[in-house]
Design a protein that fits this description.
- The chain is built from 9 helices and 10 strands.
- By secondary structure, it is α/β, with parallel strands linked by helices.
- 39% of the residues lie in helices and 19% in strands.
- The longest helix is centred in the last third of the chain and has 15 residues.
Length: 210
Amino acid sequence: MGDFALVIPAFDYIIVDPTKRKYATYKEIGWDDMSISDYVNNKENHERIADFITNTVSFSASSRRNRFYDIYNRLDMLNLEEAYPGAIEGITHLSDHFETYIITDRTEDLQEDTIEHLKKLGFPKDKIHVFFKKTHDSMHNYKRTVLREISIKYPSGIGLVTHPKDAQILGLYEYSVIGFDSIIEEKEFSGQTEFVCHTWDQIRSSLENQ
């Protein structure tokens, strides 16, 4: 490992692909296959929870988030997640050159099952550091605290983000930032990152030159 940190303050749609997990959750709630497919495969919906009414199911109240996560966070659903395309190879390769940190948006009650699933998928768990949020912490404070701790040990590093708001936090610690447009369009990163990648192959290629 090198003298630089690689920090990824994201998890879904960059480390894992939760599409099948979301599909199965909506299916159990009672949505039809075509509507589910259209919804979960639309990038604009990756950070949203659907709102729908059918002849037999009403899933539109504000409480739908609790209902969704009661199902979504079950172990059988978590185990449906797949590795994001290229992520295993990318993380395995880059962790030989960078001290690699993944700051998930998941809470600590999901830590054991998530780590076990990463191992089953083939991620090099012994070569990476994975963080989980305390239940009542705000996402912003949690990420900022972890990044501050990492920056003390590694003042120089690279951040790989799926959202501009994380680029802003990394900017506080003078890390170079690369965008990954799996959940929002490339133009949304304008002025926030040095450049934007579309695949893990592009990420590997760009970081090998660092």
